[in-house]
Design goal:
Largest sheet of chain B: none
Distance between the termini of chain B: 78 Å
Radius of gyration of chain A: 32 Å
Largest interface: A-B, 47 and 53 residues
Number of strands of chain A: 38
Strand content of chain B: under 5%
Helix content of chain A: under 10%
Radius of gyration of chain B: 22 Å
Structural class of chain A: mainly beta
Number of strands of chain B: 0
Oligomer: heterodimer
Number of helices of chain B: 11
Shape of chain B: globular
Strand content of chain A: over 45%
Shape of chain A: globular
């Protein structure tokens, strides 16, 4: 073939003469041996290496001086210069060593949440980089080590070894911090453990004033999670054409984070409220809502094994892979004592709540991928099949904690004995026995009958089978369902949400008594192709039919049709223009607003319909967005325009419009955006880019408030129709979420001489969110608060949320001698933040609002941080 | 708020510092650089006065023959060679990127115009008639197809299928400096063997084209070089 394609051969030659890249220059390829770690870098150098690269004035090829471009016109980056290598011993090995050690210091608002979000900045010594590589040019064997450490929560180390074209092994260790809050004032002692206890001076039944007084003096702490990952992997040639790979990665996530703590609604059924008798008190003195702190102590172990074939005599390409992922939660429960009595003045035995934290999970997956060329029309046939299974079988937890609902006690006047619910004897089985299996088969043929025409057909089937079946019946009482809200709801309302056939007290209760095994089958068929009209224009089109049969869901089937059209053109000078348009239409079977009755007590024998029926599950006209009819259009235009031989201008304009066939539920979503960038590489010494992007989105939804005056008191509560007595038109409301985002920045790099290099970066991020709403009448906002509401109070929107951050980063590399260098690093970050969810939280005492306890004040409204560092670089 | 001015001072200081280092850097870095090489990637075809070149060719003819056909196999034929190639060889002999006990001295006395004129003169002479090269020989296979399994590219990609220069195809991509690539057909096996050996060892690496040939020649063993030399000599 090369005989007839001299230019092709020439380009191959140009690439070939570069020879094997030096070890330190290896990029982080995404190949089959990786399990969960694809990039090694940190906030000091997110690229993990680029700061130490020197661009090679020789450029990319000995054949031509200019930089090559991608087929669409984007400049390739300037290649790096080959480093100095020293001979290791008397053999064929050479090596290079680089160490950068220095000091970092942050001043200003260095404890700001955004500054620390994914960075473990710490004043003190830091290891910018420690890198060692050795290469045997004769055998192709190599060893490479690379590591960096900002602090004990922010570091990585990686060791690679192997032989080019033969095998590679890799081992790594890394810590990545994730700071969730730096302004947390948890009320409880033991934050981060599984047992949250009240601080001295507080006991269940305290008043908000008493809790406020204690909260005012709680210590500030940071909530964060650290991801610690270790792993080892291997990939190598077993026999000719056959490559094996294996990898094990273990990730520990430890720390703490905000969590919930339900104790039933704090404002319901309180009398008298500001609206007079029968209206609730706004601060609330019943129930309780708690923002607690939970521990995070997870381990995920991923195992990846596989075998692939590079192409034997038969022409088949194979990849057989097996994956196992094993999640372990080392903390099983979270217990929290509550400062407020669920029912004030009542002899309450409910003094706290309990969580069952995430269960252990085992996931197994096996997949086979194969392809084979076809003689017909230069075609190719490919097939992939996979089977997966996800299983959970932890020991189940007692519904109530004996600590907060001790044996011998009863919950209020309901007659519910704590002893019947605070041991695992209350469970219908002792283990979860949960399992979801998935199967996938994908068949595809690609043909290229002429040089101008190509087309493909793809058939895909994916089935998901949820085998979990769990019916909750308490063998001690014969009752179905659970005691809700840690027992607080029965205390407040007397409602038990338990069902028991034959029991006058429980036979008419509406209760969920079983799990809902959501499953789905999905069939896809796609036919598509492209045709090159001439040297400058290519048209493409495809049609996809996606037929889904989910169960139990509101529709028995969904048909999603996608028509995609594309036009790529170079008819306008050197510019490449790519247009794409997609039209989507979704339809389906008849919509059933309540397909889940089998999991509720009315489906059980012995259920006695009460005289007033049971409350409607939802309004009949409410269409869930993934089940609703849909018409959508997406348009995208991408321009890539070379400017001379050293610059490229890129622009993208895109817009999506989705209209759902619903008035109640999601109505519409629209996104409009544009990106513009200019990249300039006048030579090896200089590169610069400027970019700006903006996007706006609008999501509108509608809903109808139920007429709570009818709940439990009128047969009309069962009426699901919009416009009926339970869902009257007057209770209709809409909410619109408007988001706008802007990203902009510039990056500049210049090598003043082989000894002086400057990197300057400026990045700007801004986002603005506004949630507005409209309503038919005040009853749409709240039926129970209606008498104390006014249109002036309600307004038409929530306050605006704003996030703005600007970062200026500079790094100056100075080479003092051949072996010694100096690097100066500076980063100045400032921004502002406003989120109405945190409005009114300026000091810890304000975190107590009625019977509600919050934990964090939220991010700082304004912050400024200066981070400077000085590093000494040694090269050997 | 005081952080911003401090940072600006830092950046300003760094920028002001940079030129001071750049002078010193050039001196220090030179010691670590490889030998200077001539960048031929942007070299356009040259022009010259063939008649004037002929007038200056008497000394050259002593080795390369009066009609540009060498008197002994250790000297290359010049007749019909690419003028730009010949000019760049003379130029690198003079400036030291290419060294030869005889040619370095001969080129030292030539002006740039002399070199252009000589190059155009020899390029205008009729090349050696075509021989009967065996395309099925090992050398022919390497020349025409290379050996992809060993990373050997086909010579014809740059030197043309008959060794009489590359076939240039129109393309939007950046073009190689076709005129700087030599014509190989009929060059003596002795000369080609020495040239490939010099490329392989790095003895001849003073131009961007020589850097290409260094990479190519490193894929060849002695038997390959022998086969290729024999094939080229019979082209």
């Amino acid at each position: 073939m090369l005989k007839h394609k001299p230019l092709t051969a020439l380009l191959g030659l140009a690439l070939g003469v570069a020879g094997p890249a030096p070890v330190l220059a290896q990029s982080d390829t995404s190949d089959s041996q990786r399990v969960g770690n694809t990039q090694f870098g940190n906030s000091l150098d997110p690229t993990g290496w680029a700061m130490f690269d020197a661009p090679d004035p020789a450029g990319m090829s000995w054949l031509h001086a200019g930089q090559l471009r991608t087929p669409t016109g984007v400049l390739y980056p300037w290649p790096r210069q080959l480093p100095d290598e020293a001979r290791l011993g008397s053999g064929d090995w050479t090596y290079e060593l680089l160490a950068e050690l220095g000091y970092l210091h942050a001043s200003g608002d260095r404890n700001d949440e955004f500054f620390r979000m994914y960075s473990g900045w710490k004043n003190g010594a830091a290891l910018g980089m420690l890198a060692f590589s050795a290469l045997n040019h004769r055998t192709g064997r190599y060893v490479e080590f690379r590591g960096s450490r900002i602090s004990s929560q922010d570091q990585y180390y990686r060791l690679r070894s192997g032989r080019y074209g033969d095998y590679r092994v890799e081992a790594f260790y890394r810590d990545i911090p994730h700071t969730l809050s730096t302004t947390a004032y948890p009320l409880w002692n033991g934050a981060g453990s599984t047992d949250l206890t009240l601080p001295g001076g507080l006991a269940t039944g305290s008043t908000p004033a008493q809790v406020q007084a204690v909260e005012a003096n709680r210590p500030r702490r940071t909530l964060s999670v650290t991801r610690q990952s270790t792993g080892v992997s291997w990939e190598g040639t077993l026999i000719r054409h056959w490559i094996g790979y294996a990898g094990v990665t273990n990730e520990n996530r430890t720390g703490d984070r905000d969590w919930g703590g339900p104790m039933y609604l704090t404002y319901f059924f309180v009398a008298p409220g500001p609206g007079g008798a029968g209206t609730p008190s706004v601060p609330g003195t019943f129930g309780g809502q708690y923002e607690t702190v939970r521990p995070v102590d997870f381990t995920t172990t991923d195992v990846n094994l596989g075998l692939r074939n590079q192409g034997g005599a038969s022409g088949w390409l194979f990849n057989l892979g097996m994956t196992g992922s094993f999640f372990r939660d080392h903390k099983r429960t979270l217990d929290y004592a509550v400062p407020f009595a669920a029912a004030p003045g009542y002899a309450s035995v409910i003094t706290g709540g309990t969580w069952s934290l995430e269960p252990n999970n085992d996931y197994y997956h096996v997949r086979l991928e194969a392809s084979h060329p076809l003689k017909l029309w230069h075609g190719q046939f490919s097939v992939s099949a996979s089977y997966g299974s996800m299983r959970q079988n932890d020991a189940l937890q007692a519904p109530l904690s004996p600590m907060y609902c001790p044996s011998g006690q009863f919950i209020g006047s309901t007659g519910i004995a704590c002893a019947d619910w605070n041991t695992t004897a209350a469970l219908s089985r002792q283990n979860g026995d949960a399992r979801i299996d998935t199967g996938l088969l994908n068949l595809r043929v690609d043909f290229r009958p002429t040089a101008k025409l190509s087309w493909h057909l793809n058939l895909r089937q994916r089935d998901e089978d949820n085998m979990t079946r769990y019916t909750m019946v308490n063998p001690l009482t014969g009752q179905y369902g659970y005691v809700p809200e840690n027992g607080a709801e029965p205390l407040v309302t007397g409602g038990t949400e338990l069902f028991q056939p034959g029991s006058p007290l429980y036979q008419s209760n509406f209760a969920q008594i079983a799990s809902i095994p959501f499953s789905t089958n999905d069939r896809k068929a796609e036919l598509g192709g492209s045709y090159r009209i001439d040297r400058y224009n290519t048209l493409s089109a495809s049609y996809l039919l996606d037929h889904q049969t989910p169960r139990p869901r509101e529709r028995t089937y969904i048909d999603d049709q996608h028509l995609k059209l594309g036009w790529d053109t170079r008819a306008f000078g050197n510019a490449t223009l790519r247009f794409s348009y997609e039209y989507e239409k979704r339809t389906g079977g008849r919509y059933n607003p309540d397909p889940y009755l089998a999991a509720y007590s009315p489906s059980m024998p012995g259920y006695v319909l009460p005289a007033v029926g049971y409350t409607a599950f939802t309004v009949a006209q409410m269409y869930k967005y993934d089940m609703s009819n849909l018409e959508a259009s997406k348009l995208k235009a991408i321009l890539t325009m070379p400017l001379g031989t050293t610059a490229t201008l890129s622009a993208t304009l895109y817009g999506n419009r989705k209209r759902y066939g619903a008035d109640i539920g999601r109505q519409s979503v629209g996104t409009t955006g544009a990106d513009l960038s200019w990249d300039w590489e006048p030579g090896a010494a200089t590169s610069m880019s400027v970019y700006a992007g903006m996007a706006s989105s609008r999501l509108k939804q509608g809903n109808v408030n139920d007429n709570e005056a009818l709940t439990f008191s009128s047969p009309q509560q069962a009426d699901m129709q919009f416009g009926g007595p339970f869902y009257p038109y007057a209770n209709f409301w809409t909410a619109t979420d408007n988001e706008r985002n802007v990203d902009a920045g510039t990056h500049f790099r210049h090598v003043f001489s082989p000894r002086v290099r400057l990197d300057l970066d400026y990045d700007y991020t801004w986002s603005r969110g506004l949630d507005s709403y409209g309503y038919a009448s005040l009853a749409a906002i709240s039926t129970v608060y209606q008498s104390i509401l006014s249109a002036a109070d309600v307004g038409s929107s929530f306050p605006v949320n704003v996030y703005r951050m600007q970062t200026l980063t500079a790094r100056l590399n100075l080479t003092l001698t051949r072996k010694l260098g100096l690097a100066l690093y500076g980063k100045y970050e400032f921004g502002n933040y406003a989120d109405w969810h945190y409005a009114g939280f300026d000091m810890p005492a304000e975190l107590i609002v009625g019977n509600r306890v919050f934990t964090e004040l939220g991010p700082q409204p304004h912050w400024h941080v200066l981070l400077v560092g000085a590093f000494v670089t040694v090269k050997l | 708020m005081s952080a911003m001015p401090r940072l600006l001072h830092l950046v300003a200081l760094a920028i002001l510092w940079a030129p001071a280092f750049s002078t010193a850097a050039a001196d220090g870095a030179a010691a670590h650089k490889p030998a200077a090489w001539v960048d031929l990637r942007g070299q356009p075809p040259i022009t010259g006065d063939a008649r004037a070149g002929q007038a200056r060719s008497a000394v050259c003819a002593a080795c390369h023959g009066p009609q540009g056909l060498a008197i002994a196999p250790n000297f290359p034929d010049l007749a019909g060679q690419s003028a730009t190639y010949l000019y760049m060889q003379l130029k690198t002999f003079k400036s030291g990127q290419r060294r030869d006990p005889v040619m370095s001295g001969q080129a030292a006395t030539l002006s740039d115009a002399d070199m252009r004129n000589l190059a155009v003169h020899y390029a205008s002479l009729p090349a050696k008639p075509a021989g009967r090269a065996d395309a099925a020989s090992r050398g022919g296979q390497l020349f025409l197809d290379g050996d992809p399994a060993r990373g050997i590219p086909p010579c014809q990609a740059c030197h043309g299928p008959t060794g009489r220069g590359p076939r240039v195809y129109p393309s939007d991509a950046p073009q190689p400096p076709w005129a700087t690539f030599p014509r190989l057909h009929g060059l003596s096996a002795v000369y080609v063997t020495k040239a490939l050996g010099d490329f392989r060892s790095g003895a001849r690496s003073g131009s961007s084209n020589a850097r290409i040939m260094h990479g190519v020649a490193q894929t060849l063993d002695d038997a390959d070089i022998l086969a290729l030399s024999s094939y080229i000599a019979t082209q």
